[in-house]
Specification:
364 residues, single chain, 9-stranded mixed β-sheet, Structural Genomics Hypothetical 15.5 Kd Protein In mrcA-pckA Intergenic Region, Chain A, PsdUridine_synth_cat_dom_sf, isomerase, alpha+beta, 5-stranded antiparallel β-sheet, S4_RNA-bd_sf
Length: 364
Amino acid sequence: MTQEKVNLDSEDYSGEDFEDDDMEAFENASAEEKTLPKFVVEGFWGERLDKVLASLMPDVSRARLQKMIESGAVKVNGVVVEKIRAKTTEGDEIELLEAPRMEEALAFEPQEDVEFEVVYEDDAIIVVNKPAGLVVHPGAGNPDGTLMNGLLWRYPELKEVPRAGIVHRLDRDTTGLMVVARTLAAQTNLVRQLQERSVKREYWAITMGSAAPDFVVDVPIGRDPRSRIRFKGFPGSTGVRAKPARTRVRTVDWSSADGIPISWVACRLDTGRTHQIRVHLTGEDLPLIGDQLYRGRAPGIAVKMENLLDFHRQALHASRLGLVHPVTGEEMQWFREPPEDMIQLMDDLGFGPWDRPVTVFERV
């Protein structure tokens, strides 16, 4: 499923797990800039209308979407449909006749004391170090216990900022640095920086395979039509099926385990698509150690390596973040080494010391 005309990028903001998804603040746009959501169904056959909309717009409650359908605020192929169980099929055009009440998506409750490290904070921004296993945003299957719930607990004023100031996200099991805006003005500025690709984001990944010293993956990414939770590369295809995606990669070191080559790579994102690094590296025959979703062309070997190295989540860490402060205009950077489990993995593979990839951030 892909979205045709909407300021909120639903494809990049869908599902439970996110590698690093740049979000446009739909609710911040002026009346002239807002466009009512319009979608084309792709990859789903025979699904209920409310379920399809919930997949497309996970930041809006299913109950709210059902009410919109029943009130006649949804068209399918130009005809108003008022039955939430109405079936959709490939190629159907879905149009919303009114904007969802975004405030329902913003005022998440409960506020909870969720564990995460604050790396930096001032009156405009907060930089956090997200641990593995923490979902960033409430959604289907994760109504609470998320980073957003924890942010609202520590910083109650974030209730006044769309999505509690979150402007980009990481997968549940990806660790590392994220920036959060404390004010609407700061959020607007950070979203603009993300759109302009001026925010610097470096990730460390431990992969199977022997990576080239330097390479760029420039392959559009879209939803895998065979699986609603997976994404895949579509070389040469952009638009309805896939969106442009570009990842720059520099190899830091090589190793092996049980005769299987292993690489430590640093990745820089030029775009922020769902599962971008995982999809791009797997497409280069470099699946991440421990990745439960993208195991590459030799899933048996991937499982063997996961068990041999005793690492059961994707080995991916957002190690470095750089941006221009939205108030002072100062260029700022932060670095965090991986958590203990990934450090142990890297030690077992003979990788280190940690200061070696510092220059990669500027060079990749």
